[in-house]
Amino acid sequence: MSDKPTRRRAWPRLLVLIVLLATAGALVYGWNDYVRFGNAPLHVAAQGDSIDVGRGSSFKGIVGELRQRGFSTANPWYWRLLAEQMHVAGKLHAGEYALEPGITPRRLLANMAAGRVLQRNFTIVDGWTFAELRQALNRADKLEHATQALDDAAIMQRIGAGGEAPEGRFLPETYAYVKGDSDLDILRRAHAAMVKTLDELWAARAPDLPLATPYEALILASIVEKETGIPAERAQIAGVFVRRLESHMLLQTDPSVIYGMGANYAGNIRKSDLTTDTPYNTYTRPGLPPTPIALPGKPALTAALHPADGDTLYFVARGDGGHVFSRTLEEHNRNVDCYQRKRCR
To answer: How confident is the model at residue 288 (pLDDT cuts 50, 70, 90)?
Structure first.
């Protein structure tokens, strides 16, 4: 009896088996490839990359941008399957998202679903003037520049502080912001931070200070801020100025004179500058200047409201960032000769 009919019947079965094995192999390969895709880093070469998801953006459009910019070469269906598996499809928030080296598709989708948008930092530096603060805001990346066409008075009006002079009113700190925030947002927060900090420090101030208002403390703190950058000296400097105020002596602080000179200051203060009267010339006018001369940080504010005890009334720069303090004018003049004129005796 021939076995040809048996072989004929076996071929279809073998073919089906081959197809099933191939299909199973393809499914296993595809699943493994999909799992690898979800946990493998995207093609991000350096820090600073990001993707901006606009309001109403489609999932297809988001994946398309990632592929177009070379961050992903995976099949778009992998992205769709991963989003469905994570239960985030249709739940991605608009905003700018960081693409750091090493970030995976799974982590990126999780960030978008949670709205973990990219935050940037803007630091207001202790001792900046308001003009310097405005210049720095104009250079800040991904920040809407709403103040460029506004004068100082209009800015204060827009942040809810109309009528206030802006100098000194913003607390030096680091402020986080996201794309879409404006420079007015940062100024509004920095102003509120200064109000809160000054109120708290004023309430806990040392007794019997010759300062009638928190604003006077702000003015004194700005002078302390500009006179020294050495933390250990701030309270000493403040103590000198407090004692001069109590004794009705002229403050005679060069930074206030320089501030009053404005654009006329060319990097060097001359004797004629000390005798040229301006509202900020503390060599010609008694008491504090009319406004702060810079943005004082919390350490300078604390020093102004908790000055060091002592009997010194003068100080002179040593030339290394520090100062030499003295009790009498005679002693002070010797220090000036030694450290300023290099005629020590």
So the answer is: very high
CB 158 within 8 A of CB 150: yes
307 CB-near residues (< 8 Å, 6+ apart): 206, 209, 235, 238, 239, 241, 242
Q: Is 137 exposed, middle or buried (0-12, 13-18, 19+ CB in 10 A)?
A: buried
Burial class (CB in 10 A: 0-12, 13-18, 19+), 39: exposed
- Range of 151's domain? 120-310
**Inter-helix orientation angle 234-246/214-227, to 10°:** 130
pTM across the whole model: 0.84
Residue 102 shares a structural domain with residue 216: no
Question: Same domain, yes or no, for 142 and 243?
Answer: yes
The residue among 285, 291, 293, 209 whose CA lies nearest residue 249 is: 285
Nearest CA to 250 out of 283, 204, 290 is that of 283
pLDDT in tens, 223-244: 999 999 899 999 999 999 999 9
Determine contact, residues 315/323, Cβ cutoff 8 Å: yes
3-state secondary structure of 259: helix
Within a domain: 159:
yes
- Integer-rounded Cα Rg, in Å, for the chain is 34
